[in-house]
Design a protein that fits this description.
With about 300 residues, the chain is mostly beta strands. About 15% of the residues lie in helices and about 45% in strands. The chain contains one helix and 24 strands. The chain has one helix spanning about 5-45; strands at about 50-55, 65-70, 75-80, 90-95, 105-110, 115-120, 125-130, 130-135, 145-150, 155-160, 165-170, 175-180, 180-185, 195-200, 205-210, 210-215, 220-225, 235-240, 240-245, 250-255, 260-265, 275-280, 285, 295-300. A hairpin with a 5-residue loop joins strand 14 and strand 15 (about 205-210). The relative contact order is 0.13.
């Protein structure tokens, strides 16, 4: 028999079909939208740059100014000024920690003046000490060479490309380097130059009163970021991503020239001096200066 739909039959049939589609698809689409929103929120939160506290040492590292993680032995080296930052008082020291924050040797090296920046080249730890660069054997802690720097006033950070050891003089506004036992000047008129770091392509980067700079082999430069001025410690994650600290208690992530503050301990009066970094684990090591301890944070970005 041929079935013919009347208008009322058609209306009822159409309404039933619409309701069926709504009940079968509506809630599912709503759930899907909620799931998408949750995923977007999770992605947004997971990519927001920040630092999460992991551990801190006991407050026995007196006026610790810089931290260096050494991949060759898996240990952390800490420079303790202890006396005045520009006084030749012989009370400064270098301590050794493990990566859990335990102090292995409080006075691994002692009798220094005001040690600050550190860099390892080969079997030696190079340390700036007011107006001299010290070469210390990693195996023994013995000083094998002392390089007196003519005209130096306040040597600060140090970095190496595997051949040269660069170091800054914050008060004479110069960057020097050691190569084959001789001292040379790399750049002058770098206003309050402090933090130094060498990137993957043997490119030198620095922090001074003008901001974050990228240097050419001839000492010329371009400013990558002019917001983080007067910076202290510098880490190069890649050629467009950096971590920079300011002594007063701020740490910034700089990506593609844009700075984001990821730590602020100014209210606690906890300084953020010459920071170190454990690659592979994304751990930032912060020397707190007057708080006399090193604090480790997990980086997310």
């Amino acid at each position: 028999m041929k079935y013919s739909k009347t208008p009322s039959t058609i209306t009822i049939w159409t309404l039933s079909l619409i309701l069926s589609i709504f009940w079968s698809c509506g809630p599912a689409n709503s759930d899907k939208e909620s799931e998408n929103e949750m995923v977007e929120e999770e992605l947004s939160s997971s990519t927001s740059p920040g630092l999460d506290l992991l551990w801190e040492t006991s407050p026995d590292l007196t006026t610790n100014e810089s931290v260096h993680y050494e991949e060759s032995d898996g240990q952390i080296y800490v420079a303790n000024i202890e006396g005045g930052p520009d006084e030749k008082d012989g009370v400064g020291s270098i301590s050794k920690l493990n990566t859990e924050g335990e102090i292995l040797e409080r006075d691994w090296v002692s009798g220094l003046n005001a040690p600050k920046g550190m860099a390892v080249k080969g079997d030696y730890l190079y340390v700036t000490d007011i107006d001299r660069l010290l070469e210390i054997e990693l195996a023994t802690g013995e000083t094998s060479n002392t390089y007196e720097i003519d005209g130096a006033v306040f040597l600060n950070d140090a970095a190496t490309d595997g051949e040269k050891v660069y170091f800054s003089d914050m008060r004479t506004n110069k960057i020097h380097y050691l190569e084959d036992g001789a001292i040379h000047t790399f750049a002058e008129e770098q206003n309050s130059i402090n933090g130094l770091r060498v990137g993957n392509g043997n490119t030198l980067y620095g922090l001074d009163a003008e901001g974050l700079k990228q240097y050419e082999p001839d000492g010329s430069f371009q400013i990558i970021n002019a917001e983080v001025t007067g910076g202290d410690g510098l880490i190069v994650l890649d050629e467009s991503t950096f971590i920079a600290s300011k002594w007063g208690g701020e740490v910034f992530l700089i990506q593609d020239g844009t700075a984001t503050k990821i730590l602020d301990t100014t209210e606690e009066e906890s300084n953020t001096a010459d920071i170190g970094f454990i690659p592979g684990e994304d751990i930032v090591l912060v020397p707190t200066f007057f708080k006399n301890k090193v604090v480790a944070y997990k980086l997310s970005y």
